[in-house]
Amino acid sequence: MEPRLRELSDRYYRRTVELLERCGLPRGMPPFLVLGVLAATTSIILALVQLSSQEAPAAKPLGITPAAAGAPGTKVVNSERAQVLSITMVTRNRWAAGWSDCTTGPNCKYAAVIDRDGARATAPEWPVPYATLQAGSEAIAVAPPLEGTLTGDPTMMFRLTYDGPLLTRLRYRLPTTTFAPNEILTDRVVPGRIVVVNPEESTVRMLETRGTRSPVCDGSGRCWMLSGIGRTDIVWTDDGGKTWGARSLDTHNQLGRLAVSPDGRTLLTTAVTVGANGQTVSKIQLSTDRGANWTTVKGAPPTLKTDPIAFDDGTALLLGGRPGDRPRLYRVRDDEAKLDRGYPGDLADLEGDQQLMYGFEVPKRRTTEVVLSTDAGATWTKFAPR
Fold this sequence. Notes:
The protein has helices at 2-12, 14-22, 31-55, 66-69, 74-77, and strands spanning 83-91, 94-101, 109-116, 119-122, 131-135, 138-143, 155-161, 164-172, 184-186, 195-198, 203-206, 213-217, 223-227, 232-237, 245-250, 258-260, 267-275, 278-287, 295-296, 303-304, 309-310, 316-321, 328-333, 336-339, 351-352, 357-360, 370-373, 381-383. The chain is mainly beta. It has 3 domains: 2-55, no CATH class; 60-208, no CATH class; 214-340, CATH 2.130.10.10. It has a 7-stranded mixed beta sheet with strand order 5-6-7-8-11-10-9, with no helix packed on it. Strands 20, 21, 22, 23 and 24 form a 5-stranded antiparallel beta sheet that branches. Strands 1-2-3-4 form a 4-stranded antiparallel beta sheet. Helix 1 crosses helix 3 (31-55). It is globular. The chain starts with a helix and ends with a strand. Residues 1-13, 19-25, 31-35 and 41-67 have low confidence and may be disordered. It comes from Kribbella sp. HUAS MG21. InterPro entries: Sialidase_sf, WD40/YVTN_repeat-like_dom_sf.
């Protein structure tokens, strides 16, 4: 037994045996002692490796330096001329609001406020408006690049976690034609393009697809977009962009927006023409069977102030009116748009669904408050998102 052990140590641990010999332990020492020393050495090395792995900090997203991020955004939000530019609400207690301050000269400053279950944090100043987005069960704010392209200038993401506010620099990835279910599709970061934001990986990239605006994903996982040059087509995918379906909606106009109900059955599209009096609504189409058939909505307002909202029951809500008049709410039911009692103030924005509708209003002085409704517009509540 002993010769075999000595042969094993000489063959596979030759360098270690030589090192032990230099330290005063002769080669002819009992092989059990050699193996014991080898086992002890191996245990020490493994313990050091394990300890170093435990002490090594976990990889964190690339953080924006304070100089690149700008001054504290509280100066923007609390300035005398601060105004709300955007609002995204996931629940009544989880939202993100974009603010602006244009009192310091020709260059405006922008910031964002995020509320997460009663805790609030303010993003740093940025030279262009923040885009507020929904990321799963939370609201986030993204500061777009200054040049409007995902090439050089940084893109920032601000979110509020249970451990506190987190400001990260989104890494640019190569454009792709597909996306994952947990990623965000938006046309609010790069004008005229759809980008994919991955909050968990802190990345952003262009989406190379036919769609150019109004990306909407319904509860079934289907994602819809509008596209077309000199015309308007609606396109959709059920597998993250691997395959697409398409249908022509308007052969003359390429402007307009899309609204999709949470269940994906009710769709509303608007077609817009540009003339001497600005943009006017030329056609509004409604589908209640997932886009298989479409009808033209009668009595639609000539102008719209924001995107429509589609509901699961086959109805929709519009915010618009005549040029120069105060925007009013219109309820679309049975292929006809009629004035709704709705909110009596001056709404300038309208988003959400039948569970939670919200928007900010434009009073005579400035926009500092948001209104919300949890009963499809029957009653409204007002609050300041800062």
